[in-house]
């Protein structure tokens, strides 16, 4: 059965009334949390994990996909109206978008962001339909050593890209790997790091870890830096664009999509790099009025980066669904959601659960359309959401997280683990350690251990079996490159600065 037929079957499932309702809930929640500073799609999915046990898997992932796309849409509203990016990928939007808003063009900035997100999301999802089966057919040939190398690539790429320093990223990864060791060893049956507590024999629930590190840790960190005064929000009317705005926006939308999707699909690519590249490209290509407006509120500087941001979101789903490789914080939480349902993303997911995978992909088209309808006429409403008192908001998040985790098993141990992990998440943010590598270490660590043992068993203990496959060698080389890339970047920056300093001393 070809991809087009599978996608049609996915639409048949996604267009049922119950799944349409979950899609609407997802995109509405996603937009809401994207608008609110300090709350992102990763945190929202983490908060919802404990209460979706009774929801069918297909419906749950349709909702999660809606939250993911909606969070990308909503982040542009905060950047434009408040000059406060909710996500790092929205920083570039704030550069030109907030200046447009202060010039009285907030409606046009919001409109080009919303329509550009729709265009980029639709094209990128279509590319996902084409790319995913091709990657799956390639991944079917993976052996244990290849999967181990893939896990190493995930560890190094996420640790180096999602952190300000490789050391901090690897330290966060170490926390996750240690937490992943808690419980019974699957091969020897020995208890590990359980501290003699029977409740820990099954390990720490991935949902507890995700909610504790992401939701509770983020809420505590933001609450510790709360300002009690309400933010100054630029007034906005109904989002709309004139003929000139359309003419200046459509090419940046397409160029941003072309940059965003491949970077999102690369391990460690993320959304930050393509948004920066899109902004630089639009600034370089600007002519006439657009060139004069850059730095003062050019619509191209909003259209291109927002398209790149949303296209990268669809690109992130390629390695996640086909290889089980998360390349962003939200993808890491989605991987935790798969594990909650006893599913492992990868080639077997497409074979054993095609209705779930293709229903989720089809829902991206549906959710994208819903988001356009929600964002254009309701922009003034989303602006009012920014006035919610922050103490009420974050106190509610802490209460909701505790209730959700306790509802999982009715266990006080889970609650204690939640608050300990929340404090750990707060400390990690306080000292600049990224949270995503810890979650990825927890999820992929046990898988990497199992594949390593299988590979060594096949090779009769010979370590060279780990580099016996060309695929494994390529993946390990990519992992080494991801680890050394930040070091090379710093050396190049230092080499560039030293001649300048030397020249200034001579002068």
Give the key terms.
single chain; 507 residues; mainly alpha; two-stranded antiparallel ribbon; 20 helices; 2 strands; 1% strand; Tripartite tricarboxylate transporter permease; transmembrane; transmembrane helix
Q: Quickly give the structural class.
A: mainly alpha
Helix content: over 70%
Shape: globular
| Distance between the amino and carboxyl termini | 71 Å
> How many structurally independent domains?
1
Would you identify the regions where 5 or more consecutive residues have pLDDT less than 50?
none
Instruction: Count the DSSP helices.
Output: 20
Number of strands: 2
Topology as a string of helices (H) and strands (E): HHHHHHHEEHHHHHHHHHHHHH
Query: What does the average pLDDT come to?
Result: 80
* Order of the strands making up the biggest sheet: 1-2
Task: Outline the biggest β-sheet.
Answer: 2 strands, antiparallel
What is the quaternary state of this protein? Answer: single chain
Question: What is the beta-strand fraction?
Answer: under 5%
Radius of gyration: 23 Å
What does it look like?
The structure is a single chain. The chain has one domain. The chain is globular and about 70 Å long. Helix 4 runs antiparallel to helix 12 (300-323), helix 9 packs antiparallel against helix 10 and helix 9 (243-265) runs parallel beside helix 12 (300-323). It is built from 20 helices and two strands. The chain is an all-alpha fold and 507 residues long. A two-stranded antiparallel sheet has the order 1-2. The chain has helices at residues 3-14, 17-35, 41-48, 57-82, 91-139, 144-161, 166-181, 206-223, 243-265, 272-285, 289-293, 300-323, 329-340, 347-352, 354-375, 379-385, 390-409, 412-430, 436-458, 470-506, and strands at 183-184, 191-192.
